[in-house]
Every structure is written in structure tokens, then in C-alpha cells.
Design brief:
The structure is a homodimer. Chain A has about 750 residues and is mostly helical. Chain A is built from 35 helices and 6 strands. In chain A, strands 2-5-1-6 form a 4-stranded antiparallel β-sheet. In chain A, strands 3-4 form a two-stranded antiparallel ribbon. The radius of gyration of chain A is 30 Å and the shape is globular. The interface between A and B is large, with 57 and 59 residues.
């Protein structure tokens, strides 16, 4: 077991590297040339202009004012200064609530740490350790932990009581936080100005009709079944092919600009390129002409494809965005079942336009169901068996096989230094590459599952990642052995043994996790603030692609909070804190430093850097809450396992109520708050409708909603070309019925529906 | 292990007793005096008149036509003759679908039995049994079972393939059945004539308002939030005290009639009674006068209580039945969330008036949540620890303690015969009494959980009973040992061991279960048709209480299908059939006989006897479906356990896909059909509304709904007294707004809601 000295050394290294990152950040962010890397949010908001205009040439690029360097940590108080309402206004509710998770960590663990050090640390420290045969010399860290308390001691009652106190404190904080986030969400939704998604419902699995097009079918169905509320709708067209063309064209345009820039700099020689793959081989041609021609060709293809999509009725997928006259009407439609066959006419609250994941709108019910089964099985195998292909790759990546496949490497491999480098790095590399790719793999799996909005996809990926971390980081680190070994032993060991095995291992792993927290939590978060990758990419783009201010705007990559990655990582710290709170109090301060530091860093980032791609209104909170409760449950079961091996037969049964209470608390909170995040209550919808009707009675909602839910690649065109096709689409629909509907809405709504549509 | 002879003997005994019951039934049902016991349903329908009027004196009581006795089994074809649509019409969808569960059993198990006997029985029979040391001589039953196949044999592939075939066949039948029941339910709901619950929503947890009564608050809330659809509402008053008084009065009235009858028979002597407990002690008084006075006193108390409830605002509980102008409006309100606080203004589809469980309407959310926690814990203890108090009672019920408490029993106990009788019967008696009381205990637990309709309570009790049966009948019979022993061993044995332990025990228990099926299934069902208890009670009542035809009508007890008891018992047979289908084919014919016989018996009973208390529209089907799937999953896991002990290492892993597929099938069916049973689709509501509007445009819905949801004890009065109080309640509400609402509904719906209510 590691001694205090070992930990001290590790702490010193990590603190130094964290400070190095912070200094690098402090220096880099003050250079005007990096301004767009470290403050992109303000540029996007239009508040901050390019510093290049109004300064001397030198200071356009480098900050020479030495005073500013002295205050290199002044971003910290600045990050904390903005009050929360302003932060919500500035960065959106999603971001503001995301940094609140770090604050929640502080709220939970600060009092727990204080109590733990006041009560448990003395109890553990002063326990008379019975000298045991073959027992290791306990280091000071172990003297503070539960390992120091002899078997069967009455002192375990202190741990049991503290477990209750910690649990109830966590309940209290979680409940208050859930309540506060829920009310913030409601406030946010209520204060929001008019948005298309408030009036719109996404309808999927529209059944095919032999006599009518999807367009007509949707209109008829909603005219009949929501006669007073239906306003208009937009069918969804399959634009995946078009999206690919647009993507290609964009990349070609980048190359064109690159070569044009090159030509401008060296007008003596026209740049050339090759027509083959990656411009590596093929015929050599004039680059500017080649790319210009290619772009023309793609533009033509794009135009043809666009026309095809608009005219071809098979391009219409059986999904539509249906809009209503009022929020009330939309809320009703989103929450009710339309047809007695619950696999058709599925309605759900429409995601906001930016949030729609267009590719998944057309999946039929049975296919969805099978996809979910397959992905569940795949996730199981990914979690428990991912080491098998990696081990296989590792076995390939040794000297002999390399020499076999690539014989020209032979002389190189013979050199000892290179050989040892390959042997040292390659095996680890496969695992590292896998871990870097993992969030992408999980996201692809979520996409296959068929969810329809980016926010939902992120939440699902986060759930998968959380499971993976729980098993492959937490359990694997506590019990040495791969996840597969564990699965095997879990199947072949009694359920009552498992908490014991892990429970015994938990105090031993404390020092490992302390190191982990410092590396991943402290230094990792400090690295985040430097934004090394965006910095490099920005300068590369800036050098080669930027011609105008607009290009520079596009070269800027503000990035965004990656919920699917950051949240599960953060959950690991909650889990560690809860597990070790009653076992090894000495781990807790490290966690507190992590939460405090991350809170400041991410608050700074969301204020100055990140630009969220969508706004879901803190829709992720129930997931965060649930996962903390899972952590709490795990900590309780492990404590029970640990105590039961300590022959504390009196105090262990006293813990049984804790998991039961935790499960109950979960369901209680779920029933109490979750619907705020999934449904739109009619009362709130009605208040908002009424207010709006009073303040703006003549608003033309229909034209406001027209074109709100169009595939983004159509929208681009809309700006470039005349918006004919939208009009055209309107003409597709039942013009006569619509006209008559407008004229005599009231009568038609009352008249019998059986006799005529609308 | 039992031999074929043993089973043959048991079968003979049980078949004889079943035949005895059937003969008793045949004889008893032909006696005119028993007509009201065996054909009460027709009396209630008013189709069958009392046979006493139009016959000779003798044949009033006893059937002397011997011909009718010869055809003593002719009720069987008669029971099967009525086609299903007519049965639904006659007995309701609940009953018709309940007997369909027996038919479902036949549909699943008949082909499985045929296949099993064609494939598995020969495979097992012809397996070359390796003579093992110490092995028991296998009886013929065992030679047909999987026990006969030697370890590591390739023949197990037959069992694996058959397990797949059986699973897919079960999927197919279950899917078709779910589909058919769902469409029957939709048809039933669509064809139903107007019913108050179609327009009504039960609103619970109405928040208190300092300025308004519950009555006003409800009206304002729904006028604002459902302006075009709200029609009227009825508040719920706490009439539990009143219900008790009414109950008491009824019992006293019975006594009064009894003594009046007695006096009429023997006019010479006025009957007397005693005023104390159970008329056993106290002052002797004239019975008729005494009961008449008591009834007067109670009537007065009832009147006072009724007035108190009507005038006292604290008697109004925070729940109401809110009715809407259309089914569409009610469907919308029932399926949506009203307030952003999801613990208030909870709306759900109103149960039909007879189905409402009035006592539970007023429970606040937090209390509900705690009640459910407590009942879950209680159910756990009841299931695993119920033997502890019973063992305690049994230990008290031995000779010595009896003598100690009741010394006068001493000489009696000394007699050997009586002593051995007491020792033989008493210990079993405690368990038997517990098992008889169990459904009642579970029902009380469900009532404590706070569900608001009798149908829901029955479904919840059935769920609890199913769990109890699964653990305390199935598992306890398979593995000898109490549930508590099992819980202990399950906690201390590896999860992979448990299916093995049970798997090995399964073939051994086949003969026990065959006997169980014959006793509980065959003879038990035959006993059901004789209706011994209602027969005795009817004749007692007929002798002492009946004066008029109306009294005789009330003395009749048609009984009803006890879903909470019968369904979980039936599920045990599904479980046995599925578990033994691939293990011991010889058990299957016994199950088929059970299902076929029960189907006939219960079809006869629902046609001629049972009178359902409520109609839920086969709302229970998802539970039935789920439990059969649970049985299927258990059978697959046990087969895996069994095969893994048979060293069939090649074939066992091939079974792993089965439980995964089963879980997927469950979710697929749930998504596909369950909403039919829980929600009312808007399309169907709209069709029904439109039809009704066309056929009956001037129907006064408001007066139709007035008084539909009144506590039944108020309803009694309504008939007796003038219905003033209903009018009065209407006056409580906002008369001016209502009037204006009626006059200018259309304008008010359009006008801004903020400015005025409605």
C-alpha cells in the first residue's frame, strides 16, 4: 500500500502539471492572436470584435503588457462572478445546469468531508489495532481508514450511523437540487420567447394509405382528431443523399480557397493537384480550375437531387412535424395516444429544430424494437468482452508479426531502442485508441437505436458510457482482473459474497483512486482549459483557409459541453466520494478539490468558450439524479459487504434499511419531479397561450411556423434561392379544404366529422 | 419416486371425487328449490322466474322427472354452445376474457403436448441408460423424462431445439391472443352505449386553496385549463362513517325480519333477545320492539350524519369526478399532466361508478409513496417469513400448552383418540387458516397501498398472490425446504448454481405436481361447480329471513369470478406446463385436462351463476400476459440449469438466446398492445363522439351525468328521499359564471382567460 510519501509525490507532480497548464492558459489567452480560441462565445454573440483592427501591428498578435501576466489567475473570480440567472440567459439552461452538477458535488461532499474527519477519522485512528500475524505495516492513510478498526469492534456503530447521516444528507441535497432544477426549467420554459417547438409535435410511423399521400393523410388525420387545434404541418423528406453532397461541396470549397490563397501568395506559379484519392496520385491538373469545376458539378448534382426530393413522393418519409394553434393543443397532442394501434401515429414533443436528428425519423416500430434488442446485446458484449479484440490486436502488434507483414521494417526493428519503444507503446496504443473511440462507438450505437434528437442521443450515450465506466473503471480497479473475469466470478459466487469481496478490496484501492483523481480530475481538467487541439486547428485554418472575416468566423471552433462524455466521468467521482465517505475519509478532500476546480473551469468555459448546439432545458437532470442514486446504492451495499467481513454482526444488519430507503427515494423523486422534464403541463401551456393572446393578438403563427422544421440543407438553399419550393409544398396540400377551413373554421369544427373532412 | 401405479391410484381417487362432485351438482341443480343457487344470473337478468309458482307442490322443491337425471352431463355442451360475442353481451368482457385464459392454456399446451410426445418421449425412452452405481430404479414415468438421458449425450440437442420450438409457439399464441383481446376490448368500448365513465376523469390531490372551497377550486381550474371541454364535476365526500351506519342498519333489519318471521310462525309467544354482545347476555327485551327501536335510532343517526357530510366543508375530500362535454375532452384530460407539480391535480380515467373504491380517494401523494414502500417491505416479509408466526402458533397448539391455558380440557385431552386428533389437526389448521385468509390479507395490503378502484385492487392482489405462489408453492415444492431456507441459500450460493439446484430437482418433482394438479385442479374445479357454501347459506337465509320475493332475491348470492385468487392459481399451471414441457412430457396431459375441464366449468359458471360487480373491459390482460412470460422465462432458466448439470456443454449455451428473446418479446408486446388497456385513443373517442352527435344531437349530457358518481350510500337515500341535496350541491358552485357560460359559451371560450374565469 502506498505511503503518505508516495501520495505526496504524486500530488506534487499532478499539482505542478496542473499549474503548468494554468500558466500556459494564462499566457496563451492573453495573446490577441488566440482571442478567438479562448473567447469564441463572445464573438458569436457579436459582443467582442476582432482585436486585430484597433491595435499596433505587434500587439495584434502578442500581448506585451506585462501587467496582465501578473494577474494570471484572475479568470477564476471572473468565472464565478456572473450570477446564475445571467448565466442562464448567456449560455442557456443546459450549460448552467451542467456546471451545477459540480456545485452539487461540493454541496454533497463538503459537509460529508467535515463530518467524516470530525467523527470517523478519530474513531479509526484511535482504534487499538490488534497486532495480527502477517499483517502489513499500516501506513498513516490506512490508520485513518476503516482497515484500522479491529474485527468485531463496537466502533463500527460509528460507521453505520455515519452511513445513515451521509445517506440522509445526500437525499436532502439531491431532493432540493432536483426541486430547484425543476423550477428553473419551468421558469426557463415560461420565460422563453415564442419558439416553433412549443407549438409542434413530431409525428412518426404514419401508416401508409393507398389513396392519399403522406401529406394529405397527416392533414386529414389531424383535422379530424384535433379539429379546433390543428394548424399546419411539415412533412419530412429524406435528404440524407443531399446532406452528403452538401458536405462534399463544403470540403471542396475549402480546398479551392486553400489553393486560391496559395496562388495569391505566390502568383508566379499556379498550384496543381492530383485527381486521385487524397490528391496523392492520378493525373496532375490545375488545382483552382479543377476544384472550381468539381464544385460546379456538385452544385448541379445538388440541384437535381433537391428537385428529385421535392417531386418524388417516395422521398417523403412517414413522419411529420405537426403544428397547432396553441401550446395547449400541442401539449395535448404530444401527451395523448392518437390511434388504438399504439405503433402508428406516435406523437412526441418536437425537439427544437437544431436538435432534430433527421436520419432517424423514418424507422418503423418493429425495426426500432429489434434495433434496441441488438444494441442491448452489443452493449453487453462491448462492456464485458471488449478486451478480447484488443488483446488480439496487441498480440498481432509484436515484433515478429510486424516483420512478417512488413519485411522492410526488419532492419529498423533490429535496433534495440526502436524495438523496445514499439514493444512498450504498441500494446497500450490499441487500448488507448479504443478508449478514445469509445464515446463515438457508443454514440453510433445510440444512433442505431433510432432516437430522434441529438439531446436524446447524448443522454443515451451517457447512460452507456456510465455503465462502461462503472464496470471497467470502478470495479476493475477495485478488484484486480478484467470485467470478463468479474462476470465469471459474479456468476459463480453467491450474491452475498460479492459485496464482501469488493468491500474488502475497497479500502485497499483508496490510494490508487487518490492518484486517479489527481491525474484524471486535476491535471485533466486543467488541460481542458488550455484547449490545445482547437488552438492548433484554429491556427492551421487561420493560416491556410482564412481570407475574409467571415472565413475566420468559420475557422473558430467554440466546441461544446460534451454531455455524453463529461457527465459519466463526473459520476465516477460521485461514486468514489460516496463509497469512500464511510471507509477512507482521506480520499474526500481530493474529490472536493476536483469538484471545486472543475466548477470554476467549466463555468469559465461556458461563459467564454462553448457554444451549445441545442438547448434541451436541462432535460438531462433526471439521468444525473438517477446515477448519483445508483452510486449511493452501490456505496451502501459495499459498506454492508465490508462490515460483514469485519465480524460486526451487530451493526451490519442495521444497514439493510439503507438500500430499501434509497430505492424508495428514487421512486419518490421520480414521481415528484420527473414529469417536469418529460411533459408540458396544460396549466403552464394555457397561461403562456393566454398571455400571448393578450399581448399579441394578431400574430400570424402560421407564417411564423412555415419552414421552421426544414432539413438544414434545404434551409441553406432557401437563403440562396427563392423559397419557391416551400410555397410549392403548400400547394401540394389540400388547398380547397384549407381555404374553406380558414373561412368557416368555427362551423366546420362543429359540423359532423363523419360527413366531410374538417 | 412414485411409480405409474401410485399415480394411477391417485388419479382414480381424484377422478372419482371429481365425478362425485359432478353427480352431486347434476342432482342438486335439477331441484327447483336450488334453482336460485345454480342459475342466479338468469334471475338477475329477469329472464328466469321463480319455479315455485307454476308447479305442483311436490315439484316445487324436488325434481321427480327421472329422465332429466340421465342427461346429468348435458350442462357441458350447453356451456360451450353460447358463441363468444353473445357471451360478452351476456356476461361482460371481463368474464368472457377470463375464461379465454383457460382456452389460451389449451392453445399453448395442446400442440406442445403432441410435439413433446412425438419427439421428446421417444428420445428419452430410447436413451441407453448407463447403469449407475446407487442409482434408483427408474420408473416408467422417469423413463419418459429427461432423467433417462445419460450425461453428455448428444440427445440433449432435441431438448434444446424443442425448447426453441415451444418458446416460439408460445410467443405466437400469446401475441395472437394479446392482439385479439386488444381488438375485442376496443370493439367492446366502441360498441358500449353511453356510460358516465366515458366522459369522466377522476382528479385527485386537489391542492388546498385558502380562498376557495374544493368545489369552486375544481370548477375554476378546469374552466381555465379545459375551457372548451369542461362540463361539470362532482366532489367526493367522506362517507365512511355513513357507510358503517348503513351497514349496521342492514344487519339489524335482517334480525328484525328474522324475529318477525318467528313471531308469525308461533304467534303465541313474542320472541325475546338480549341487548349485550351477540345477543348472548345483557337485559332480556322484546326482540321486535328492540330492533325496531334500534333501527329508528340508526335511521336518525344516519340522517344527522348525512346532513353533517353535506353541510360540513371538511367532509369534502380533495378529490373530484370531473366530467367533460365529449369523450375527446375526457381522454385528453386523463392522459395529460395538469400542473407543473406532478403531485397535485392528478388525473386518471375514472373507473365506472360501481368500480370506485371510495375509501382511497383522499390519500395525499407523500402518504401514497410511503404506503407503497411499507407494503413492499411487508410483502417481502409475508412471502419469506410467514412460516415463523405459524410455527409459533403451532408450538402453542400442543397438548401441554392447551392444558395449561384451559385446565378443564385435561380429562378430555387424556383420551388417546382426541389427543391424537388434536395433535394431528391443530398444527395443520394454523397453516390452513392462514392460507384461506391470505387473499384477504393481500387485498387489505393492496387497499392500504391506496388504489382507487376495485378492479385495480384485484389486479394488485393477484400480483402479490402470484409472487407468493411462485415462491411458496412452486419453489418450495421443487426444492424441499421453506421459502426462508431458500432465501438464505439463494443469498449464499452463486447465481449460476441456483438454476442447477432447481433444475436437478425439477424432474424429481414431476410426480408430486401430477398429484397436485389432480387434487387442486381436477377435484378442486369440480368442487367449485357444486357451490356448497352458497348453497348452504341460501337455504339458511331462505328459511329464516325470506318473507317476500324481494327478500329471496336478496338472499341469492351469485358470487363472482375472483380474479385475485383464480388467476394466480391458474398461472401456476401455465408455469408447470412450460417448465415440464421439455423435461417430463408425461405431466402435460394432466394440465390439458385441467384447462379443458376448467374452461367448461367456468364458462358454465359465468353463463349461469356469476354476477360481476364491475366491468373493467379485460383490463387485466396485460398482467396475465406478463405472468405467462415470467413462467416462460423461469422455464428457460431452469432448463439451462438442468442441462448444465447433465454435462451437455455443447447444447446448453445454445439456450442463452431464449431468455433474451423472451425479455424482448415482453417489451415488444408491451409497446404494441399495452396502451390499448391503459389509454383511450383520441381517434376512437372522436369517432364515438361524432357518431353520437349525429344520432342524438340534443342529448342533455349534464343531467345524465348528474349524480352518476355519488357514494352508493347516498344513492340509496336519493331513491327514498327527495334529491334536494344534489340540487343543493349544484348551488354551491359558481352559479353566475355557469349561467353566463351556458349563454355565451362560444364567445367566452375565445375571450382571454386571464381577464375572467371562463
Amino acid at each position: 500500500m502506498a505511503t503518505v510519501q508516495d501520495i505526496g509525490l504524486s500530488a506534487a507532480i499532478n499539482i505542478l502539471s496542473a499549474i503548468a497548464f494554468l500558466v500556459a492558459f494564462a499566457v496563451l489567452r492573453l495573446q490577441p492572436i488566440n482571442d478567438r480560441v479562448y473567447f469564441p462565445k463572445w464573438y458569436l454573440k457579436g459582443i467582442r470584435g476582432s482585436p486585430a483592427h484597433n491595435r499596433a501591428f505587434m500587439s495584434k498578435f502578442i500581448n506585451v503588457d506585462l501587467n496582465t501576466y501578473l494577474r494570471f489567475l484572475n479568470w477564476m473570480p471572473a468565472a464565478l462572478r456572473m450570477p446564475e440567472p445571467e448565466l442562464i440567459e448567456h449560455a442557456g439552461l443546459d450549460s448552467a445546469m451542467f456546471v451545477r452538477i459540480y456545485l452539487l458535488g461540493l454541496k454533497i461532499f463538503f459537509p460529508i468531508t467535515v463530518l467524516s474527519f470530525m467523527v470517523l477519522a478519530p474513531v479509526n485512528w484511535t482504534a487499538e489495532t490488534v497486532p495480527r500475524i502477517g499483517a502489513l505495516r499500516l501506513s498513516s492513510i490506512d490508520k485513518l481508514s476503516i482497515s484500522n478498526v479491529p474485527h468485531g469492534s463496537k466502533r463500527f456503530w460509528a460507521h453505520v450511523i455515519m452511513a445513515y447521516v451521509f445517506t440522509f444528507w445526500t437525499f436532502r441535497v439531491l431532493y432540493n437540487e432536483y426541486k430547484s432544477v425543476a423550477s428553473k426549467r419551468l421558469q426557463f420554459l415560461a420565460s422563453e420567447s415564442r419558439r416553433p417547438d412549443q407549438f409542434t409535435v413530431l409525428v412518426r410511423n404514419i401508416p401508409p394509405d393507398p389513396d392519399e399521400s403522406v401529406n394529405e393523410h397527416v392533414e386529414h388525420f389531424f383535422c379530424v382528431n384535433h379539429p379546433d387545434h390543428y394548424l399546419t404541418h411539415q412533412v419530412v423528406r429524406n435528404a440524407n443523399q443531399l446532406a452528403k453532397l452538401v458536405e462534399n461541396k463544403k470540403s471542396l470549397q475549402n480546398w479551392l480557397i486553400y489553393y486560391q490563397n496559395k496562388y495569391e501568395k505566390y502568383p508566379s506559379k499556379r498550384p496543381t493537384t492530383k485527381t486521385g484519392f487524397c490528391s496523392l496520385w492520378g493525373k496532375t491538373v490545375d488545382a483552382i480550375n479543377y476544384y472550381a469545376a468539381e464544385i460546379d458539378r456538385l452544385s448541379e448534382e445538388e440541384r437535381v437531387e433537391r428537385e428529385r426530393i421535392l417531386s418524388d413522393s417516395t422521398a417523403v418519409v412517414p413522419a411529420a412535424f405537426v403544428s397547432f394553434r396553441s401550446r395547449w393543443g400541442a401539449a395535448v397532442c404530444a401527451q395523448t395516444q392518437q390511434s388504438s394501434n399504439s405503433t402508428i401515429w406516435l406523437t412526441e414533443w418536437a425537439p427544437e429544430p437544431r436538435d432534430v436528428y433527421w436520419n432517424n425519423l423514418a424507422i418503423p416500430y418493429i425495426s426500432l424494437s429489434i434495433r434496441r434488442l441488438l444494441m442491448a446485446v452489443a452493449l453487453f458484449f462491448l462492456t464485458f468482452f471488449f478486451m478480447i479484440p484488443i488483446t488480439f490486436v496487441q498480440s498481432l502488434a509484436n515484433m515478429d508479426s510486424i516483420v512478417k507483414v512488413l519485411p522492410f521494417m526488419k532492419p529498423l526493428v533490429k535496433k534495440k531502442l526502436i524495438a523496445s519503444f514499439i514493444q512498450g507503446v504498441l500494446p497500450g496504443l490499441a487500448l488507448k485508441i479504443f478508449l478514445i473511440l469509445l464515446p463515438t462507438i457508443l454514440m453510433i450505437m445510440s444512433k442505431i437505436e433510432g432516437f430522434t434528437s441529438h439531446s436524446f442521443l447524448e443522454r443515451r450515450s451517457a447512460g452507456k458510457y456510465h455503465l462502461f465506466m462503472l464496470i471497467n473503471v470502478f470495479l476493475v480497479s477495485v478488484i484486480a482482473g478484467t470485467a470478463l473475469d468479474q462476470l465469471h466470478s459474479f456468476l459463480n459466487q453467491p450474491p452475498s459474497e460479492i459485496p464482501k469481496i469488493i468491500g474488502i478490496a475497497v479500502p485497499r484501492s483508496a490510494t490508487f483512486f487518490i492518484t486517479y483523481i489527481m491525474v484524471d480530475g486535476w491535471a485533466g481538467v486543467a488541460a481542458e482549459i488550455v484547449r490545445l487541439v482547437p488552438l492548433v486547428i484554429f491556427h492551421l485554418k487561420n493560416t491556410f483557409l482564412v481570407k475574409t472575416e467571415k472565413d475566420r468566423e468559420q475557422a473558430m471552433d467554440p466546441g461544446c459541453l460534451q454531455f455524453a462524455i463529461s457527465e459519466p466521468r463526473m459520476q465516477l467521482y460521485f461514486l468514489l466520494g460516496l463509497v469512500y465517505s464511510a471507509v477512507t475519509p482521506v480520499l474526500l478532500p481530493f474529490i472536493i478539490v476536483f469538484f471545486a476546480f472543475s466548477y470554476m473551469v467549466y463555468r469559465h468555459q461556458i461563459i467564454n468558450v462553448y457554444d451549445q448546439k441545442y438547448e434541451s432545458g436541462a432535460r438531462f437532470w433526471p439521468d444525473v439524479h438517477r446515477r448519483i442514486i445508483i452510486g449511493l446504492g452501490i456505496s451502501q451495499i459495499l459498506l454492508m459487504g465490508l462490515l460483514s467481513t469485519k465480524e460486526a454482526s451487530q451493526s451490519t444488519p442495521a444497514l439493510i434499511a439503507l438500500p430499501v430507503l434509497t430505492i424508495w427515494f428514487h421512486f419518490f423523486c421520480k414521481g415528484r419531479f420527473e414529469s417536469v422534464f418529460t411533459k408540458f403541463p396544460l396549466q403552464d401551456a394555457m397561461i403562456k397561450d393566454t398571455l400571448e393572446k393578450a399581448t399579441d393578438p394578431n400574430f400570424d403563427l402560421k407564417s411564423y411556423l412555415r419552414g421552421a422544421y426544414i432539413h438544414p440543407d434545404f434551409k441553406v438553399t432557401e437563403l440562396e434561392q427563392s423559397p419557391e419550393w416551400i410555397e410549392e409544398e403548400d400547394d401540394h396540400s389540400l388547398v380547397p379544404t384549407k381555404r374553406s377551413q380558414k373561412g368557416s373554421k368555427r362551423e366546420s369544427a362543429e359540423s359532423s366529422i363523419g360527413s366531410s373532412y374538417c
